[in-house]
Amino acid sequence: MAIKTTAEKLATIQKGYTLEGATIELGAAIIDGELHKDAPVRLPLAMMNRHGLVAGATGTGKTVTLHMMAEQLSTAGVPVFLADIKGDLSGLATAAPGSEKLAARTDSIGQAWQGKSYPVEFLALGGDGVGVPVRATITSFGPILLSRIMELNDTQESSLQLVFYFADKNNLELIDLKDLRAVIQFLTSDEGKEQLAELGGLSKATAGVILRELVNLEAQGLEKFFGEPEFDTAELLRTAPDGRGVISCLELPTLQDRPMLFSTFLMWLLADLFEDLPEAGDLDKPKLVFFLDEAHLLFNGASKAFLSAITTTVRLIRSKGVGIFFVTQTPKDVPAEVLGQLANRVQHALRAFTPEDAKALKATVSTFPVSDYDLEETLTSAGIGEAVITVMNDRGAPTPVALTRLRAPESVMGPSDPALVQGSVGASALLAKYGTAVDNHSAYEKLTGKSATATGPAAPGQPPLPAGAPNQDGQGTGGP
User: Fold this and answer.
1) Is residue 260 part of a domain?
2) What's the pLDDT tens digit per position in 197-208?
């Protein structure tokens, strides 16, 4: 094969990224060691529901990349969901200050940079953090999803389905973990043995297994997640009054300690969205884009049932207009069944210090289309803020591989001031709906004769205020 000149390589990339329809700008191509601002690298909005992967070694700029992409999606009117593990993404709510160094970088890629804040809604699982609490009911999860999370076998899953059937038939509301435990304990007690016999499929031994798994869920912190008021996933689809997409930022500072908490939430959230959203077909832009940082934590030690569920959801939810971007260190962190569905790739630098690293590097290179780059060399020498990119073009084909110097975010790359975050949460309209846990009269109270814990209503809230933006453009939370 004839060796291409730099001009020929440049022409290939320019043609490959000349796209119809709306796009987000990723940066400018680097060819034969030279940066070409006349070779912009883009991603079509219409193809973002084909999902994607942002990968690279620690410290190469992955989180900054999803930060930059989230900004542009918001500007385009696309709501965004972010899982914020390190606490860095709250900076989206604060306009970034300029500098000479920043100006030199943005000028070099042809970026018209301006510091901006973005409309951010801060969320926290079960109120475990500063954000608006996110909760769900046991009934909403249902027996199948709970069985997958608890890794129950088929017999145990059938038994759990019978528990749900009994509860529904007898108007025993399953709101939180103590409700489910109370129903199982009742059925295995002397008082409930007649009802147990009528069900015919739940043994005391199986009930004991399920109860032990419920204790494990509590050990992972899920007792705060299950309850009311339940979070309406339609809240993730909102736009601000100025038309920008609201960025929902879920803080997960203790994810490494409680991976099951995030896994559970992810499965429920996506399943709930999939159930509620209508088929959308091909859209000009997605209804919602998920960015799942530290995605390897989703899959480490995950059950086969969980992997099967996430694979199926990723495959089917794109037809509802939802795109999912996994952010992790190497593509091998993501199971092959999921990786094969991620059409858009942003690959930051990889390290090759060990034989295992070298093996991972070769595996990564093999997942890219044939290109004009020596990808093994390129992926080990790419600088911070640079990435090898290929995406799905507007015709459904992969774009040419391009080493890219990426755009700079226009909001702060790091945490916002804690006072700003707390003020935003305190002024959020969602706080009035979800801020105070409610322990309504449900199965536990009905079976034990105890009264529900008294809880007061949340204080009335106002729409989130602008985050450090006196021109009122920073913190809108428009209607659905």
Assistant:
1) yes
2) 888 778 888 988
Average the pLDDT over 52-64 and give the result.
94
Contact 187, 454 (CB under 8 A): no
Q: Which residue in the block uniquely carries the two structure tokens 């001031």?
A: 417
Distance in angstroms (rounded) separating the CA atoms of residues 296 and 405: 25
Show Cβ contacts of residue 345 under 8 Å, excluding neighbours closer than 6 positions: 52, 53, 55, 367, 368, 388, 389, 390, 391
Residue ranges making up the domain that contains 217: 138-226+428-448
> Is residue 470 domain-resident?
no
Distance, in Å, from the CA atom of 386 to the CA atom of 35, rounded to the nearest integer, reads 11
54's CB contacts (< 8 A; 6+ apart) are: 62, 65, 66, 291, 325, 326, 327, 328, 346, 348, 387
**What pLDDT is recorded for position 125?**
87
pLDDT, residue 452, reads 59
- Based on the fold, state whether residues 299 and 217 are members of the same structural domain: no
Residue 461 has pLDDT above 60, yes or no: no
d(CA 90, CA 447): 44
Q: Compute how many other C-beta atoms are within 10 angstroms of the C-beta atom of residue 209.
A: 17
Tens digits of residue pLDDT in 375-409: 999 999 999 999 999 999 999 999 999 999 999 99
Tokens 């995030």 belong to residue: 262
314 and 175 in a common domain: no
Residues 442, 360, single domain; the answer is no
* Cα–Cα distance, 377 to 365 (Å, whole number): 10
CATH number at residue 115: 3.40.50.300
One domain, residues 398 and 311: yes
CA distance 128 to 200: 40
Q: Which two tokens stand for residue 399?
A: 């774009």
317 in the same domain as 270? yes
- Its pTM stands at 0.88
65-81: per-residue pLDDT in tens?
A: 999 999 999 999 999 99
Say how many C-beta atoms besides its own lie within 10 A of residue 65's C-beta.
26
The answer to whether the beta carbons of residues 249 and 420 sit under 8 Å apart is no
Give the helix, strand, coil percentages of the chain, each rounded to 5.
Answer: 40, 15, 40
* Helix extents (H) in 200-343: 204-219, 259-276, 296-299, 304-317, 336-339
Q: Above 90 in pLDDT, residue 139?
A: yes
**From the CB of residue 91, how many other CB atoms can be counted at a distance below 10 Å?**
25
User: Do 117 and 261 sit in the same domain of this protein?
Assistant: yes
Same domain, 344 and 443: no
How many domains, the chain?
2
